[in-house]
Input
Amino acid sequence: MTKSEVQTYMQAHKIHLDTSQGQHFLISDEVLHAIIETANIQDKDRVIEIGPGIGVLTKELVRRAKEVIAIEIDAHFVLHIHAFAGNPKNLTVIEGNALHTDMPTDAPYKIVANIPYHITSPLLHRFLLEEPLRPTSMTLLIQKEVAENICSEGTASILTLLVQLYGTPSLVYRVPPTCFVPPPKVDSAVLHIELYPEPKGTPELREKAMMLLKHANKERRKMLRNTVAYLPGGKAAMAKANIEQTRRPQTLTADEWLGLAEAFLFFA
Output
């Protein structure tokens, strides 16, 4: 139903998508339901949807949640969201950039979104590092490769470490290009992040862990004995944290980076 409904609506209203801005509408009922079920939307929930387009996901969210706040940067799409979603009373549409729009601070909320791939990293940085009230969970349809990196057992990148310090990520569903109109050039995936009530470690430890990984990733193919161990107190810190110098940065877990950060601060 979703595919024909979306395509018919787009044709009737002469809607054209700009793929250079990451505009790809979801047209798969199966994926849509996977997102809704994964987000575990309850009738008491407040949901913030980012980049709703004309409201394909919005239409399902308003049926489940107590309140949906949809933030859309494209003024043309903003005109269609209420109509496509059936003019629900529990929907608020905000025209703006989700990276700069004020978020709720008075009550818990969940993030659910099919987002342009190029804002994945800044979006996660904003909600995990900058918001006074972080969401309780984030369910995102993003590029599959990025989702796989975030969910890796080791820390494949700074983004991986960031997410794993603040919550438990899981790759729930792989999504082929045929599930969108127009089809993107890469595969996508549904990523769910269940945020911890409080992030791991202290702010000082998290900042130090991120700094150490950033330093190690400058030469990520090299063993840690050639990067982190050369920092002041590096060898002693690695010994105290029980991290073998022959390991490479992407093999360490978030907890190991925190342990290494704590050891560095001990010898500082």
